[in-house]
Write a structure and sequence with these properties.
about 90% helix
């Protein structure tokens, strides 16, 4: 059961990270799109996203798994495996939440919390 939850957490984290990177690439493509015909720019953009997203997702998956393994080694002896997974997930989602807030609304988590 814990293994399935861990895989679900890792998958979610990887999707969020891969999307952030592919969105940055999309922005670069759209900046250059005015130089190309819309049909060409769309085709090139779609190809780049597919060609980049799959290896990118594989890479982020490997990196995330390694970081999680190392963080579990640190917390396992002190707090236990379940707590380590929960702590890793919470900290990672908090970090990603802050990155998405910055990207979409140009504000950090602290600013958003104390904003009226």
């Amino acid at each position: 059961m814990l293994r399935k939850i861990t895989k679900g957490i890792l998958f979610t984290i990887n999707v969020l990270i891969a999307y952030l990177i592919s969105a940055a690439l999309e922005d670069l493509i759209l900046q250059k799109a005015h130089e190309l015909h819309p049909l060409t720019a769309t085709a090139v953009g779609m190809m780049i996203i597919v060609l980049v997203f799959i290896p990118l997702f594989t890479l982020t998956e490997k990196i995330t798994e390694e970081i999680m393994k190392k963080s579990l080694r640190v917390t396992k002896g002190t707090f236990g495996r379940k707590f380590g997974i929960i702590l890793f997930a919470l900290l990672t989602f908090l970090l990603l939440y802050n990155i998405y807030l910055e990207e979409w609304f140009d504000m950090g988590l602290i600013d958003a919390i104390f904003r009226k």
